[in-house]
Amino acid sequence: MLHEPSKIPQATTKRLPLYYRFLQNFANAGQKRISSQELSEAMKIDSATIRRDFSHLGALGKKGYGYDVQDLLAFFRKTLDQDEATNVALIGVGNLGSAFLKYNFQRNHNTKIVLAFDSNSPLEGEKISEIDTFHPDRIEEKIEEYGIELVILTVPSRSAQEVTDRLAKTNIKGILNFTPVRISVPDHIRVQTIDLSVELQTLIYQIKQH
User: Fold this and answer.
1) Do residues 80 and 72 make contact, with C-beta atoms less than 8 angstroms apart?
2) I need a labelling partner for 131 at 20 to 30 A (CA). Which of 21, 112, 141, 205 fits?
3) Residue 66 annotated as binding?
4) What is the dihedral of CA 140, 143, 147, 152, to 10 degrees?
5) Would the pTM of this model clear 0.70, i.e. be above it?
6) Is 34 in a helix, a strand, or coil?
7) β 67-68/33-34 pair status
């Protein structure tokens, strides 16, 4: 029987959207049940890791049966709030920011970029990749107007903390930080930092160990 997790390891948390995506693929193919080994082969994740993750979630499965695909999908949908869209703002429409706007997340996820800010945009706003884009001077006003919960930060490093301090005065709940700066936020805001240079160096190190 699945139960809602109170607290699960961060590594497990990061894999939840991947489980959901792959389970959707199996469901779309008409599969009713699945084993940890089948998921392991599809996702290239060790089956013991999958079983441990699922045990954290209360998904114990049945020996000789595996896991019920629809039950797992329903659980992950609830856990990841897939039935409720999250409005996202992007701050910094440079090369990386532009790529986010062109992709937008609504195609595959429950999140949608509905607002953007860039220093080259006018105060009255403009459309970039069909997204309303304003000058950063209007951050506080527009974050509230659009009901933004999550911000993607792709500004230059020198501006990261200054922009974050302004965001801290709004009602946002999280920041996905793509700057190399370790930004400081109040307790009510969660931060996930993705430093592309660190990720690349980590990958290079791993390659050289083989």
Assistant:
1) no
2) 21
3) no
4) -140
5) no
6) strand
7) antiparallel
Nearest Cα to Cα of residue 22 among 13, 10, 31: 31
Residues 6+ apart with CB under 8 A from 147: 87
What is the set of domains in the chain, with CATH numbers?
10-79 (1.10.10.10), 86-198 (3.40.50.720)
What single-letter amino acid sits at 61? Answer: G
**Quick check: 9 pLDDT over 90?**
no
Residue 84's pLDDT is 63
pLDDT given at position 89: 95
Q: Tell me how far the alpha carbon of residue 16 is from its chain's centroid.
A: 10
92 is in an annotated binding site: yes
Q: Is 30 annotated as a binding residue?
A: no
95 annotated to a ligand binding site: yes
Sign of the four-CA dihedral 179, 180, 186, 187: positive
96 is in an annotated binding site: yes
H helices of the chain, in order, are 10-28, 36-43, 47-57, 69-79, 95-103, 139-145, 160-167, 196-208
104 marked among binding-site residues: no
